[in-house]
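[audit] Reproducing an earlier prediction to check determinism. Same input, same settings, fresh worker. If the tokens differ from the archived copy the diff job will pick it up downstream; this log only records the rerun itself.
[audit] input (349 residues):
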Amino acid sequence: MGRPWVRCGAGLLGLILVVGPVLAGPVGAEGVSAVNAWVTVGTTAPGIGCGVPVSVEVREAGYTVGGADITVALAIGGEVVSLDRAVTDSDGLAYLGIDTSGAYDGANGWLDVLINGTYAGGMSITPVSGNGCDGAESLTSLEATVSLAAVSSAAESFDAGAEISGGGSFIGVPTYVQQRNLSCEYAALAIATGAFGNSISEYAFDEVVGWSANPHWGYRGDINGWWGNTSDYGVYPSALASALAQFGFSGEVFYGAGDATALQTRLDWGMPTLVWLGMWGDTSYYESTGDGVSYNLTPGMHVMVAYGYDAAGVYLSDPASGSYRYYDWGTFLWMWNVLDGMSLAVAPA
């Protein structure tokens, strides 16, 4: 059976990470532009249990669009059975995949394509029992008007050379792919503890952390839900720090609040650090518990592990894709500041 292409940091309800500068050419008025996309799938009639490659190329006014966030979702009978997310490279290309394990013979499937959270269109997918996982490639072209206002004023004005030292620190951390749609926090802990040679299973944290509507107190929602909404959401560092102590680790909660020094210091000390990022920018709002305790929720929240930095930016291990990422300081701070620089530095107890 193929492995589902689902991730925390990937979801049908919206997305996503927009890194900048996005375009190799001009951006449209107010950051909203008409883009063209070309979607290629390995086959539109795959067998059941297949992993089918999908590539998406995005251009605006003929220029390649790098840093655009792409989601593809395979829906069968109105229910999403497979989903993947990727960011376009400097050539405007994103490479993704869908899994047909949740499909059935002759199903009338549909492949949704979203660009920076906007539905751009799609194509018909009809799984056929007994077919292979590849065949004649199929190409379709799409057009959509999407937001390309990737760089906030904070990101545009941040002077990395003035604020960040010329040196840097790097910690050896592994990559790891989270096993459930919304387990990025627990997967990030597996990555951070793995830096010390004793990676703690993401599943070990389920019962230890527990659940709560307030993510400061426990995990909010269904860990197998779809990313991007706030009913099925995640958990904040205060609940994780106490859980780490039960596995022989310590966790230091801090809020960088726009000051990169706090993060740099922990990395200088050799502490891999979980960072809570607002991948869609500032979409935050507040809810309250029954006794009036207020807490912040941010649609499009995702957690990665910072393991290094240099004068230009930050190095992270992303459990959504099981890969290493790099963001310039401006882009990183734009996302990190959304939740006030919420972070959890990890070290052996």
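[audit] rerun output stored. Observation attached for the diff report: The radius of gyration is 20 Å.
[audit] end
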